[in-house]
Design goal:
Distance between the termini: 53 Å
Helix content: 25-40%
Number of helices: 15
Strand order of the largest sheet: 20-19-21-26-25-27-28
Largest sheet: 7 strands, mixed
Structural class: alpha/beta
Number of strands: 28
Low-confidence stretches: 1-23
Mean pLDDT: 93
Radius of gyration: 26 Å
Length: 686
């Protein structure tokens, strides 16, 4: 343990618990017509304090705005500006949106403004002390998704030396549920509390996760953006990255483990939830009655559906003996057993929702042992298995799944080799529901030789594949199924097919750079126009409250080629009111004019019905267009993180005469998935 004694750890853990009160979710939150606000309303700020905070914000903003000119020509310092901006954003949000939840947080806000001014002064002088500091450090990066600055916390060991050639182990720690976990509270706690685990000589990274969403969607991307930022500024051993978390953070750990099994050296989830339907019945006592597409979309974040992937990742789970959230590991153990894996499950004797000292010692012993041997294992095995339900999650070590026969149906690839050598000679591959895949070996992974061909068997079909001798000893082999037969693929994947990063559903567009496009024209009719305006306002407001960023917005008439090239476009309004939508309306699978809204063989009244959908942008098929939707879960789902899953598929038709509610944007009269070529399917793509 670095500079933190057990006594200090216990004291700081108590401070953290006291600082982060969280309204317990439970059966009382099962009433969609009576939904409490998340985040809750804050306390009133006395006028004197408010004036002081606003004055501090003005001063800090002025210093931040002056930094680009002061640091011109020094890119290494320019990229540190988000480390200053996080303090301004934290206090601005708290003041502007009434997010000081306790009176003492107002003083914390003032202190953060002072810290921001101190960092601005150090940066302007070219002497940023925090970049070489050890102990508890808060950092910030600018997100590719919406341009917002996002904070994350670090525990930097005393043994760390800037510029040292030694790569440090990196442990991720995802935090638990905290409905009052504003940026102010997160930054304050990141500078007070090292967390549950501080392995010797390891750097521990605490993602903010964009608030309280169990690190899903943009919260999921936050983890990787924080890691990428940390890797730029600290020497990290990429073979020794460990996934850890407890409660809501344990749920995050489960989904990161199964979705990215070979990204980590080990995983140690504690409590939390690992799927949606069974957890809601046990923990929430909620009778789930999903629409068919909702049930299918549970496969996005149900870790139980990806249990096979734990075969690629050493995992040690923890639960308190008397914790209702032990259910998460129990259902994972059940599913793992189905694929021949026994879950290593440490139980805290007599414990409820907390770690016992004995269990922590045992977990540390096991995880430390695994991490010390990391780097040797991923491909050197005689049997490898990987499963997915969507191309959003398509990578396991050298395996890249590049196409499915049908989304949201289990897909699987098994590689069976004659021995545990690092190679593909005489490998047998078995696939289920896969139409394209690749093997990607990084540089120095392949031994150069005279043999020009590779013998391989895919689904009982024998192939002889030419193998190029690349000078960096890398190798990529791509395969596709055509008319039921496998062949070596040498051409690019066609534009209008579902492929990794362009596979839907609607929520997928909000995991990369997006731009809200506001209509400036006259709508088809007042009913549709008012609904679209209201839903756009809702989407912008709730992006801010749930994903902690200011959604970028442009008028339709201001959209440039650069916007089309760089961003998913979220188009609001209709083909008459939105100039961008008018350009592409005839190229979409749903036809929308003043005469009717046509979806396949169904026609809806355009004066009362609106389509929401996701589709490759006809103006740039490498990006999406989304019609009339933000992220699709709503206020009712904020009350329990297991509910925060996609509520709508690739497309839907909304009857807007039914007002939006805490669950839906109106009455959903039609919904479904496009096919793998983004075509409309009969029976709504069931």
């Amino acid at each position: 343990m670095p500079a933190f004694s057990r006594i200090r750890l216990a004291v700081l853990a108590g401070l953290l618990a006291a600082a982060l009160p969280s309204q317990a979710d439970g059966p009382k939150d099962n009433h969609p017509d009576n939904v409490r606000p998340v985040p809750p309303q804050g306390v009133a700020i006395p006028e004197k304090d408010l004036a002081e905070l606003k004055d501090g914000l003005t001063k800090l903003r002025k210093e931040i705005d002056a930094l680009p000119a002061a640091l011109r020509g020094r890119p290494g310092l320019l990229e540190l500006i988000p480390d200053v901006e996080i303090f301004h954003k934290a206090v601005r949000y708290a003041v502007e949106y009434n997010e000081f939840f306790k009176v003492n947080e107002i003083a914390s806000g003032k202190e953060l403004l002072k810290q921001g001014l101190q960092r601005a002064a150090e940066l302007k002088a070219g002497k940023p002390s925090w970049t070489t500091a050890t102990g508890l450090v808060v950092r910030g990066y600018r997100s590719k998704i919406d341009g917002s600055v996002q904070p994350y916390g670090l525990v930097v060991p005393e043994s760390y030396r800037p510029g040292d050639s030694i790569g440090h182990r990196l442990d991720l720690w995802w935090h638990g549920r905290g409905e009052t976990l504003s940026e102010v509270n997160f930054i304050v706690n990141a500078q007070r509390n090292p967390g549950q685990f501080t392995p010797r000589d390891a750097i521990v990274l605490h993602p903010y996760g964009r608030y309280c969403n169990a690190n899903k969607f943009a919260g999921e991307v936050d983890t990787f953006e924080a890691i990428d930022h940390a890797k730029k500024h600290y020497r990290i051993d990429e073979n020794r990255m460990v996934a850890r978390g407890f409660s809501m953070g344990g749920a995050a750990c489960w989904q990161f483990a199964v979705h990215y099994p070979t990204f980590w050296a080990a995983a140690a989830p504690g409590a939390g939830f690992s799927e949606t339907p069974e957890f809601l019945k046990v923990f929430q006592n909620e009778p789930t009655k999903p629409e068919w597409w909702e049930e299918r979309l549970w496969h996005w974040y149900n870790a139980t559906d990806y249990a096979l992937n734990i075969s690629n990742l050493p995992t040690v789970a923890y639960s308190g003996e008397n914790d209702s959230q032990k259910q998460a590991a129990d259902v994972m153990a059940r599913e793992l057993k189905k694929v021949g894996i026994e879950l290593t499950h440490i139980i805290g004797k007599g414990a409820k929702h907390h770690y016992t000292p004995e269990a922590k010692d045992e977990i540390n012993r096991r995880i430390d042992a695994i991490a010390s041997h990391a780097g040797w294992y991923p491909w050197g095995r005689a049997w490898i298995g990987f499963t997915t339900w969507t191309l959003r999650y398509n990578v396991s070590d050298i395996v890249r799944v590049e196409g499915l026969e049908r989304h949201w149906i289990r897909s699987k690839i098994l590689i069976i080799k004659s021995d545990a050598s690092i190679g593909l000679d005489n490998a047998t591959i078995k696939t289920t529901n896969i139409s394209r895949f690749a093997f990607v070996f990084p540089p120095v992974a392949v031994t150069l030789g005279k043999q020009a061909d590779l013998a391989i068997e895919i689904d009982s079909q024998k192939l002889i594949v030419p193998v190029p001798s690349n000078s960096d000893r890398s190798l990529e082999l791509h395969f596709e199924k055509v008319d039921g037969k496998w062949r070596n693929r040498t051409e690019p994947i066609p534009a209008f097919v579902k492929k990794p990063g362009l596979q839907g559903p609607i929520d997928d567009a909000f995991m990369d750079k997006f731009l809200m496009v506001r209509p400036t024209g006259t709508p088809l009719n007042d009913t549709v126009g008012k609904w679209a305006a209201g839903e756009m306002k809702h989407a912008i407001s709730h992006w801010r409250s749930q994903y902690r960023g200011d959604a970028p917005v442009k008028d339709d008439t201001a959209i440039k080629d650069a916007d089309i090239a760089s961003s998913h476009l979220i188009l609001w309004g209709d083909p008459k009111s939105n100039a961008v939508l008018a350009k592409i309306a005839d190229k979409l699978p749903v036809k929308w004019t003043s005469k009717g809204l046509v979806v396949g063989d169904k026609t809806y009244n355009p004066e009362t019905h609106v389509p929401v959908l996701i589709y490759p942008n006809p103006l740039n098929p490498e990006k999406y267009v989304v019609l009339n939707s933000g992220f699709t879960f709503r206020e009712y789902d904020y009350l329990n993180n297991a509910r925060q899953v996609p509520k709508l598929p690739d497309y839907a038709v909304v009857d807007v005469t039914t007002p939006p509610s805490s669950r839906w944007p109106g009455k959903i009269v039609c919904a479904g998935f496009f096919g793998e070529k983004w075509e409309l399917l009969p029976n709504d793509g069931k």
